[in-house]
Amino acid sequence: MATAAAAANAKARRDIQHHFFSNDAVRPDHAVAFDPPSRLQRRQFERMRSVGIVRENKQGLYWMDVVAYDIDLRRRFKRVRIVLLALVLLLLAGLSFSLFVR
Question: Which regions of 1-102 does DSSP assign to beta strands (E)?
Fold first, then answer.
């Protein structure tokens, strides 16, 4: 269930990213309108606005800050890397413990 939610969130982020990149809305002078078609995209869009990835130029016109997007992407990848490393260490610790107990 959690993986399905994560995949849906990732798709919503990609759809939003695609909208801005395909319209070359990566600078304030190229801002475009965006009306999220779903509740999930609305939530992702608001999150992206709150962290400064999507910025509003004029009332209802938005553009994507590519530098902020890259920083956010690196931060998310770093978190995933840390979680995966922790899982590997826990598995190795469990394996060594089970070999020691025998």
Answer: 54-58, 61-64
